[in-house]
Every structure is written in C-alpha cells, then in structure tokens.
Specification:
Layout: E1 9-13, H1 18-33, E2 37-43, H2 44-53, H3 56-60, E3 66-71, H4 86-109, E4 117-121, H5 126-134, E5 138-141, H6 146-160
Parallel strand pairs: 1-2, 1-4, 2-3, 4-5
Helix pairs in contact: 4-5
Length: 174
C-alpha cells in the first residue's frame, strides 16, 4: 500500500505593491482551487492594509491549505511607500526583506511542511538564487497587464521597422 500523496506546498511572494499583490492573490486562489497548499508571503505593511480595507480572510478561509505569512519590507509602518519613496522600498527590500526571505526558505526546508516550489514576483529575482541554494524550483511571475506584455513583446519589431524611437516628437522640447 502506498502512503497518501501530499499536495505540493508553494510560497507565493509578490512585490509589495497593490497591483502586484492583487495579481498574485488571484494566482494563489486558482492554485488553491486545484488543491495545492499555498503560503502567501506578504509584507507586514500590506497585510495590515488588506486586513483593514478588505475581507481577505473571508475570501480565503474556504481553502484549507491556504495561509498568509508576513515579512518585513524593511521600512517603518508609518512610511508612505508612494512613488517618490520607491527607492526606499527597494533599499528596504535589499537590506531587510532579502535576508529574512532566505532565512524563511531555509527554515521551511527543515520543517515537516517543506516548500516544493517558490513563485516570486518577476521583480524579486533574488528568489531564484535562494531556491537554487536549497534545491527548490522557482518561478518568476510577471504581474503586468496583457497590454504591457504586448508592448514589451512588440518592441523589437517596432525598433526594427523604424517606428521606435519616435522621430521629431521631442524636437521642439528644449
């Protein structure tokens, strides 16, 4: 008789910004529907905002293998985290979030509920290094819209055809 199979356990790790989190939550929900166990790793700050302004816990209680976990983004909770302070977010991620993530992945490897895959935001490329260190497959998931993807995908053809860079548009802007 074979032992019962255990479903995969995936950590989903979005970049700490609303659009990235929303896309990754949808992915987490779809994977949960397939019976995959999910740990959604969110920054303390954004998790607090989700709890305060949405019914996020009610939305995910129907998935028994789903859980939230938080991690520091390296910034104080009263930091505004808006466009002008974007550099602060990246600095905080490198200084604080990156080492905490490595520690977390390492501890999951030694736990009774090991992670079998990491799905990280495309901006969080350091997750690949940590996954490789401990032998966990890692996927970078781009959270951009279909229009943005098509723009990036089409750029080589636009350059080749001479459509980009635009000629003459900024000639009078001095």
């Amino acid at each position: 008789m074979e032992p019962p199979s255990v479903s995969p356990h995936i950590i989903i790790f979005p970049f700490p910004a609303q659009g990235h989190i929303n896309s990754m939550l949808k992915l987490a929900e779809l994977l949960s529907l397939a019976g995959i166990r999910i740990t959604f790793l969110n920054s303390d700050y954004n998790h607090h905002r989700l709890l305060r302004y949405s019914n996020i816990l009610d939305r995910f209680t129907r998935y028994p293998g789903f859980r939230f976990q938080t991690i520091s983004d390296g910034l104080p909770l009263d930091h505004p985290r808006t466009g002008v302070q974007l550099k602060d977010m990246f600095d905080g991620m490198i200084a604080r979030m990156k080492p905490l993530f490595r520690e977390m992945i390492t501890s999951y490897c030694r736990s009774s509920d090991p992670v079998t895959c990491i799905i990280a935001d495309g901006i969080m490329s350091f997750a690949i290094d940590f996954g490789n260190e401990v032998g966990i497959p890692t996927v970078l998931f781009r959270t951009i819209s279909a229009c943005a993807f098509l723009s990036y995908f089409s750029l080589p053809q636009l350059i080749e055809s001479g459509e980009v860079p635009f000629k003459g548009i900024f000639a009078n802007c001095r």
